[in-house]
Amino acid sequence: MDAAWAELASVGYSNLTFEAVARRAGTSRPVLYRRWPSKASLASTAIIRHVKLNPLVVPDLGNMRDELCLLLRKFADRSPPRQLRLLFEMSEDMVAEKMNFMDERFRDNALDRVIERAVLRGEIDARRLTPRVLRIPLSLVLHDVIVTGRQISDEAIAEIVDQVFLPLVAPLE
Length: 173
Known about the structure:
The protein is mostly helical. Helices cover 67% and strands 0% of the residues.
């Protein structure tokens, strides 16, 4: 998996080959094909492993705003524009193999922990947390990076948190 991730990071999904991964790993293509029948299965396994080895950990900072800004910064730093292209490069193969980046295997539950603490502190109203609302912060960071092709600024992250997400989940008085 280290070899597959290194190849993905250096050449992208479109140029990923079993031959190159096998060479980098010091093995053979048949060994890889026994475990991963397709390029999409090999790449998605490498991505999942990368996400699991690089978890987003956000300590309790005492308030949701600071925790969410830190989480989004860490998320953006872990997903630079070049690596996000993998999503687009892989999309056709993933659809064909009925894979989905929203799948639980690809999820990092750091946002869940931040949300749970905020609910316990009374900072947000749990009744306002729909699956779509919960996807908003990370989706907007991804959108910004994908559209601009650049890393998102701390100011843009603060805007997502302050002007979009917090108003949607704040307790109604």
